[in-house]
Amino acid sequence: MLSVTNLTFKRGSQTILDQVTYTFAPGTITCIVGPSGSGKSTLLACLTQLYTAYEGTIRSNDLVLSSLTAKERAQTIGIVFQTWHLFPLLTAQENVTQPLMLIGDFSKEQAREKAAELLRTFDMQDYAHSYSSQLSGGQQQRIALARALGLKPKILCLDEPTSALDAGNSQLLIEELKQLKQTGITVIITSHDREFVASVADTVLELEEGKLKSTSLKN
Hints:
Elements: E1 2-11, E2 14-24, E3 29-33, H1 40-47, E4 54-60, E5 63-64, H2 70-74, E6 77-80, H3 92-102, H4 108-121, H5 137-149, E7 155-159, H6 167-181, E8 186-190, H7 194-200, E9 203-208, E10 211-217
Parallel strand pairs: 3-8, 3-9, 6-7, 7-8
Antiparallel strand pairs: 1-2, 1-4, 4-5, 9-10
Helix pairs in contact: 3-4, 3-5, 4-5
């Protein structure tokens, strides 16, 4: 469970997030919608502690995220960015392997075995030795998902995950997210894609000018 209480983030004199309070339940997919500049991506950056100069509290169960070590945070909450941020000089397998060794304390052999398992999960085993420039947008996203899930975070955030995907890859992502939900992970997504949101979300939150204006529950 991820609980956000009175989360406020300012940039200079501008308030980006204004007293946001919400609890994200485990095993659910929550989509955050709203116009550009409403604070959606900033909210994800605060949740994942990429931005730390905020007021308020973010907790995973009873743990305050700002008090965790980098390793503890990585094992608590992960993020897949809009542009995926794969390392271009590393192969797909190496992109998944590196965090396991650097953060997860896996040995090189253990990391390779775990990476191979994750690539199979996303049907990317045939592309293990490919570089990001050799992969389609959907394939790069699968690698980014595999990398984010390698440390088994309890919460996964995705920023505009369909922005560079065609209809076929968007549908594959919907199916992958629904499978992830069955494992009990909390999934939080920002999106402008209303059709995607309608297909995947259990709950929809709306941000407007940094304020949580409304919530709707999908039947």
